[in-house]
Specification:
This protein is α/β, with parallel strands linked by helices. Helices cover 36% and strands 12% of the residues.
Length: 206
């Protein structure tokens, strides 16, 4: 929490003239969504700056483009929380609600934020498909489902890009996280992410 506020105060040169959000982030999207995407945490100079998850950074650019290509978003990019972007049929939340140093949440941050994701999932009562972005999001999704009283199989379903599992009333479809580490190296390409989102749409309609 202290680091989140410090980075919002100090800023970086390219955003020196901007007022940072610098607070925890709630999810964003269609309250009637059938697909819930689960990210890791707000980026220090992305969501922590703009006030909306996956907004104003390269990871968000990659994700919004894929959501637009698959019909979930009404535009392919988002730079500000007030830019008018809307989602239809999808909602995005983060497993951890504050920007962590080096994008590496501590176990304490993970556990402190877990109830918020669980409550958000409970409120999104039409969601049938979860799309965790990365292994951290996958584990957060399983914990949220379990906290709702559903039995998670043992051994727990393993994460992988395109991995699928059914847990309680939910289908899970995994994707690598759209971090620059994955997108710049080609580990995650636009067609790969779009394929996962299209699969999620099919499962949500089933």
């Amino acid at each position: 929490m202290a680091w989140r506020e410090e980075v919002a105060r100090v800023k970086v040169a390219r955003f020196a003239g901007e007022t940072y959000w610098g607070r925890p982030l709630a999810g964003f999207g269609d309250p009637a969504a059938r697909v819930l995407l689960i990210g890791l945490a707000p980026a220090a100079h992305g969501g922590n700056r703009t006030g909306r998850v996956f907004t104003g950074d390269a990871s968000g650019d990659f994700l919004w483009s894929a959501l637009y290509a698959t019909g979930f978003a009404d535009r392919p990019s988002s730079r500000r929380a007030d830019d008018g972007l809307t989602l239809t049929g999808a909602y995005i939340a983060a497993a951890v609600r504050c920007a962590p140093p080096q994008n590496r949440p501590t176990p304490q941050e993970r556990d402190t934020c877990a109830p918020y994701l669980a409550r958000e999932l409970a409120l999104l009562d039409r969601v049938r498909v979860l799309v965790p972005l990365g292994g951290f999001g996958w584990q957060a999704a399983l914990r949220s489902i379990e906290s709702a009283g559903h039995v998670v199989p043992r051994p727990r379903p393993g994460f992988g890009h395109g991995a699928e599992a059914t847990v309680g009333p939910y289908a899970l479809v995994g994707s690598y996280h759209p971090s620059q580490q994955n997108t710049f190296t080609g580990r995650l390409t636009a067609p790969m992410l779009e394929a996962v989102l299209r699969r999620a749409r099919v499962l949500a309609a089933g």
